[in-house]
Amino acid sequence: MKHKAKRLLMGVATLALFVTACAAPPKEKEPTVFYPAPPALPRVQFLASFTGAKDVEGPKSAFETFVTGEKESAKRLDKPYGVGIYEGKIYVCDTNQTVMVFDLNKMTYGPLEGAKGPGKLIQPINIGIDKDGTKYVTDPVRGQVVVFDRNDFYVKTIGSPGGWRPVDAIPYEGRLYVADIDNAVIKAFDIATGKMLKSFGQEGDETLDRPLNLAFDAEGYLYVSDAGRFQIIKFDRDGHFITTIGKVGTNVGHFQRPRGVAVDRSNRVYVVDAAYYNVQVFTKDGQNLLFFGEGGTKPGKLILPAQVVVDYENMKYFEKYADPGFLMEHLVIVTSQFGDRMVNVFAFGKEKGKQYPSDEELLKELKERLLRESGTKPAEGEKTNEPEKPTGVK
Q1: Which residues are 245's β-sheet partners?
Q2: Which domains does the chain have, with CATH numbers?
Q3: Shortest CA distance to 317 belongs to which of 107, 30, 135, 59?
């Protein structure tokens, strides 16, 4: 018995040593990144990124991986696009998997609970989340919008397969507005009945081409990111055309590959450009205020960014990442489709104790600075200052 006990003790000690030796080193604190870069007053801080289970559950030791036989690559996002956040859960539409969930309360990562059986998703591309937690996932391959409740369980579908391709959906005052890329229209459904009420975007001269993403502002205006027109098209809730933001080009305020769009409570409009690897911020009238992000793999950089959302309700989960001297106003979450930083969380805010110009003063200051830097006078109504193109843009 003594020999058996001794062998057992030695085995336990060896196992403990093996686990300790194989455990991954603790994750280093990432550097603080602000946009614009100093000496300008900061407006955006990069906070954190999420790509897989290790970002919430912590890295597994080599021994744990050996015992479970689980590959680390199997527990991460593959090709994300849409993103949403509700009560501490980040929902990511992985177009090569399903909707994946980073639960910041339980510190877990896994598939959406209700995305099986009748709720099974084929190629989820975007997710819209209502105030009550109801989730609307657009699946262009399935040809429907799949609805899940606040607890992530399947509820119903909206729309019938065939004849359309829904790519984004956003609820607003009892209606669900859906971007149909095949027919180049926005379709409005009654959420309660699922009945289509109207479609718009093909009337008059200002017609849609390839509508991709949608967002409402605080006044009830709908912003449509149109990849075919290289613009953001603004409608009222009934589908009447209001104005456009941007155009194809290489200057600030122009687009090459516009994708996600979001609007904050001050009606600032955030637009992802997949070609420039950045997010441009506009006034509701289309004047460019600033842009943040750039191509690369380091903190705060983006690789083929896709979607952007603005959130005010979940800042408490990210306060630990904020610089002590930076006052967060809201979160801005941006997805990258490739790389090791696929869900990027930024904070929009101000440096404490500093006086910031209004948006109007900022526009005047920006125009004057661009004139000094370019040494030329821009054409009437033209925006200047070409953003630096990241390497590898095609």
Answers
A1: 232
A2: 34-62+71-374 (2.120.10.30)
A3: 107
